[in-house]
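Retry 2 of 3 after timeout on previous attempt. Resubmitting structure tokens to design endpoint.
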């Protein structure tokens, strides 16, 4: 039995969430950015960056869960509002829209630690966002093709 649309969206979004962490964390290790995706999740969960390994792990799980929820939105948005052709471009546009929206909301609501972002962190997060957009398109496409075969 193949997964339904909801499940495919969550799985695809979670896969993309894991993939987007890679460029973000590599750039963090190179001191290019100071704000990882798990830091965003930690601030929203705890009100501060993580202080322990368990807080870090839990925040990363929260980030991947959020990415999965975005995947659900993506799979329901595609057939309802737009066609499934050019899925990679649509994945990119979707992910950049969410990236910009999250940045905007953090400034509008003056969320501590998230209102002043360095250029390095913004660029790193944009690379991760681009990765998310491409990988969600790929993973959703792969899950749909698996269902057809």
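Retry 2 succeeded. Sequence:
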């Amino acid at each position: 039995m193949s997964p339904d649309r909801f499940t495919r969206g969550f799985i695809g979004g979670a896969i993309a969430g894991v993939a987007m962490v890679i460029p973000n964390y590599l750039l963090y290790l190179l001191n290019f950015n100071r704000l990882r995706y798990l830091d965003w999740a930690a601030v929203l969960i705890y009100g501060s960056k993580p202080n322990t390994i368990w807080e870090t792990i839990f925040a990363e799980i929260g980030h991947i869960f959020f990415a999965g929820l975005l995947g659900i939105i993506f799979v329901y948005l595609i057939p309802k509002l737009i066609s499934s052709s050019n899925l990679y471009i649509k994945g990119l546009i979707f992910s950049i829209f969410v990236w910009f929206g999250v940045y905007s909301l953090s400034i509008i609501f003056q969320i501590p630690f998230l209102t002043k972002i360095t250029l390095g962190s913004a660029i790193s997060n944009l690379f991760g966002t681009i990765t998310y957009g491409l990988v969600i398109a790929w993973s959703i496409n792969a899950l749909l093709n698996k269902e057809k075969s």
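Attempt log closed. The chain has a mean pLDDT of 91.
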